[in-house]
Amino acid sequence: MTIVPTFQTAVDPQKLEKLAETAVKVGLRLEPGQDLVITSPLAALPLVRLITKHAYKAGAGIVSTFYSDEDATLARYQYASDASFDKATGWLYEGMAKAYEQGAARLAIAGDNPMMLAGQDPAKVARANKANSMAYKPALEKIANFDINWNIISYPNPAWAKQVFPDLPEEMAVAKLADAIFAASRVDVADPITAWADHNASLNKRSTWLNDERFAALHFVGPGTDLTVGLADDHEWHGGASTAKNGITCNPNIPTEEVFTTPHALKVEGHVSSTKPLSHQGTLIDEIQVRFEGGRIVEARASKGEEVLNKVLDTDEGARRLGEVALVPHSSPISKSGILFYNTLFDENASCHIALGQCYSKCFLDGASLSQDEIKAKGGNSSLIHIDWMIGSDKVDIDGIKPDGARVPVMRKGEWAL
Ligand code: ZN
Ligand code: ZN
Predict the structure, then answer these.
(1) pLDDT tens-digit readout, 189-245
(2) Does residue 207 share a domain with residue 180?
(3) How many angstroms separate the alpha carbon of residue 126 from the centre of ligand 1?
(4) CA–centroid distance, residue 336 to ligand 2 (Å)
(5) Distance, CA 62 to ligand 1 centroid (Å)?
(6) Which residue segment(s) compose the domain that 79 sits in?
(7) Is-contact 258 30, C-beta < 8 A?
């Protein structure tokens, strides 16, 4: 086999170059002398090479990439001993955590085959995920707490492209997914750096309005949904570029269309239905319906993938509570594309969403200085997981509820009301 994928020609080389440059200059804002840790599927090698080039041109210290490979992952499920599924590469994650402590930036390239583990034993998948989450925690905390500048972008892996466009031949599917990624990532324009500056300014305007309103709760009403999401005490809305604790202002997600904050882990009431399927580590979980009492999911159903959903909810105590609520207009470019990407980085930006599990400490006023106990006291949730799923559509209305009960329209039929 060859290391350089043969479908390379299907991906526009100039736009790929712009994506790499945007990842370094907008996504990371890599500083001269800063080291960079990249994780990537092997299929994204052409993009990794371009990012590495742009990182060194921007003055990077050392760029180190860790690759994953689908065949190698599947070989584990086929041949590894049962005990293997409770193991994880803790030594590698400890090294990554150490790199971040010493100032390295982090870039992840998404684009794995979303159905890679679909045929595997769900119990083994859950054990391997749990072992991995526990081992990864020291490194993940530095990312989730925004200690460092980090960024995630994606590359059109053929297996992913075939999932998104099953009726097209592989080369056409890759070309079409590549175009969708370039458009959503705003690199299909003459000057992506300026386009991102404009986009960041408009997201900033939304989050500033929400921060000024200081809502106590958001009330979502739509088909199968009547949900009140209490917001954490001293919550802060974020959107677009934001400043990491190391002082660097970066765009962690490319694409991004959301403004988001921290719900109160104990103050979510009512029921909610998903509006798009959730692709979770190889399983499609569709038509989710859950009911909350006192912030906790007490009933959960799904027309597909219910067993996996319930395993996820049983990960730990915080897995049944919310760690994020995010607002995205129905007219967002990703929503308008009409494409289901089977990838949270894209699909969450097509719709308002909530996330089960860990909250972001940066979504509190003065979040960087708060201890874990202080975050908990303000209503911040903690968990090994953070899983976003989509609850918005053109049929959902959202009101903001002030502490005195007054209501302010936030979204009507999926669009900003202000
Ligand atoms: Zn989100
Ligand atoms: Zn999220």
Answers:
(1) 999 999 999 999 999 999 999 999 999 999 999 999 999 999 999 999 999 998 999
(2) no
(3) 23
(4) 21
(5) 30
(6) 6-184
(7) no
